[in-house]
Amino acid sequence: MSKLLYFAGAIILCLAMASVSLAQTTTTITTTPTQTTQTTAVQNADGSWSVVEYPVGREVQVNLTPVGTITGLNGTATVLRAADGSTIKLNLTGVPANLTTVNLYAVDPTGAVTMLGPITVNNGTGTFTTTTPLTRFMLFASPETNLTSYSATAPMIFRSGVPEGLAVIPLARTGEGPGAATGERVAATAAPSYSIPMLGIASFPKKKETTMHLNVADTFHLRRATVFITPNFNDQGATRVKAKFHELSDVQQGAYLTLWAVGPDGSFMNLGSTTNTGHPNVATIDTDRNHTNVPFTDFGLFMTVEPSGTVKTPSGPIVVRIIQ
Predict the structure, then answer these.
(1) Could you tell me which CATH class the domain 55-160 is placed in?
(2) Could you tell me which residue, 4 or 70, shows the higher pLDDT?
């Protein structure tokens, strides 16, 4: 009888251990993060507005997008910006035989059109080199010789695409005071893990303080904060950014909440940082006080949490995006 009880107990123990083993078995799923570029489409989501600011001293390759019913047309341009303007070199192939001359135009952020010159075409191939004082523009080519305005329906055979890593500048506001920007606003790919929309600084009223909106990550607890920007502050050309934090008690102590600007070419600028010191738990980051007013003609704003307040490039996750 005792042996029977012994074997029965052993069987029950084995079954219990098997049950525990099965309960502890887990399946690990490994995922590969995929970077996404945030795009805020205000207007012209078809790509018909592609004005960008070209970085100084770096040759940028620009793809030319065929427009209309022409097939087989291919084109590229290179743009090299210097201190006094930009040099444009253009190459076309597959131009229809009936087009012996095509005119190249540039469009600036206000929508103004400048004719850069005629492109002579031989046997379907055209090359053209020119210089322009413009540094922020898009290109388009048309058989027309006297265009004075640009629209998506203007007669053209191609327009420039958006070079990788640059951001579309919205069509500038006209008149006094703030108003809705037009044009497509595309994020600048600032770093492998950052994708920041440009604000379109040219469309803001100069020397006037504008209140921005904050998009706070779900995982970050920032109870109250206000951000203001003032383009051309004190007639110095740079933009003042002022961030007021009214409640920092939920920010991890010892961490540096850091405000960043990123230009269209992906260059970063640390505008200042603050920590949760406990008492008081309010703070202000003022670029004018920090001598970090933003010199970029356009930029995006965001915040990360960093281990130090003096880092030159962001490394922490984005916890706040500043938007219009």
Answers:
(1) mainly beta
(2) 70
